[in-house]
Specification:
Elements (H helix, E strand, L loop, with lengths): L2 H22 L8 H12 L16 H37 L1
Length: 98
């Protein structure tokens, strides 16, 4: 398999993974899992008291979306830095061996 065809195959797989759930679950409501856990805890243990309070109280969906996106961006930056660091080290090691 050539490099070009494997790249196209990977891109097609990424598109299927990204768009597939959106097409399959079209029209359904997406909810956070935190809400399901809170409901289950309140049902099973009505006298339960949380250990900590939220840092940002009554944040709207815009704030939650921003925090999620910021967390994803920071994680992607850290992963990119680590991968670049290891790639640079391996290239330097190969260059030094020759």
């Amino acid at each position: 398999m050539s490099k070009l065809s494997s790249n196209w195959l990977l891109m097609g797989g990424i598109l299927v993974l990204a768009l597939g759930p959106l097409l399959v679950l079209q029209g359904r409501e997406f909810g956070a899992t935190d809400g399901h856990f809170i409901t289950a805890i309140e049902t099973d243990h009505p006298d339960y008291k949380p250990w900590v309070e939220p840092v940002i109280k009554d944040s709207g969906p815009e704030v939650q979306t921003f925090l999620f996106a910021a967390q994803a961006g920071i994680g992607a930056g850290v992963m990119g830095y680590i991968l670049g660091l290891y790639k640079g080290r391996s290239e330097r090691r190969e260059r030094d061996e020759h």
